[in-house]
Amino acid sequence: TEGRFTGKTVVVTGAGSGIGRATASRVAREGGRVIALDISAERLADFKAELDGLDITVVTADVTKEEDIARVLEAAGDRIDALANVAGIMDNMTPLHEVTDDVWSRVFAVNVDGVMRLSRAVLPRMLAAGAGSVVNVASEAGLRGSAAGVAYTASKHAVVGMTKSSAFLYGPSGIRVNAVAPGPVITNIEARFDSPLAQERITTAMAVLPAPVEAAQLAASITFLLSDDGVNLNGAILPSDGGWSAA
Ligand code: NAD
What we know:
There is one protein chain. The chain is an alpha/beta fold. The chain has one domain (9-241): NAD(P)-binding Rossmann-like Domain (Rossmann fold, 3-Layer(aba) Sandwich). The protein contains seven helices and nine strands, in the order E-H-E-H-E-H-E-H-E-H-E-E-H-E-H-E. It has a seven-stranded parallel sheet, sandwiched between helices. Helix 1 (18-29) packs across helix 7 (215-226), helix 3 (66-76) packs parallel to helix 4 and helix 4 (101-129) runs parallel beside helix 5.
């Protein structure tokens, strides 16, 4: 039977864990050829073993490194139908006057530069095909200021900006670019509070936080936009948060 991704090559980052893994799994189970990349070879091997028999090519790659991205493109081949930029890291919940250069640059390298670099490499193939779908994973922290520290919040607002610029500029070329903004999800991502000031403020704002959901629930939202089901959506920033953003 035909799946939503039958005949399509889909690149998924952060495929070793959490939301990326659930997304890559769903795409493969719906007939897609998945190029699954992650910085962790061990996590990728575990993912591949779990879905033995499906069309999954794993590539150990760091999205911040151009040479790694070149290997991903080589593995994917000439046609890339869809790209899910899921890999990302959290900050340590510090406000601006306490942020270190190290946290700022690491969070921006993965969450912003990583999305820019891989998308920049993939888009020429989509332009050549006159078709493509890109889904970026933002965050509730890409919608407002009360969900994380300054580095993560600024990085996810940058993801929203990249999404909107690309949606506008590539729409006429047949390429859709959307983002999903997850609420709390049970994954391996780490959130540590290093600042009493931020902890007090953010904990107060999280009073109406919904219960954390499984990564599969995010994969449902991401694959909706990634597949042709999202045919009329371009530049949408879709909160997938059980209604948290409506609070
Ligand atoms: P996770 O830590 O479980 O998975 C992220 C994966 O990305 C890991 O396997 C990690 O090895 C990989 N990764 C990290 N840096 C990488 C790099 N430089 N190159 C390639 N791979 C790299 O986390 P998750 O919660 O599934 O996060 C996925 C995305 O969802 C992130 O962008 C995160 O900001 C976003 N998000 C998560 C939540 C949540 O509550 N879990 C909420 C909002 C947004």
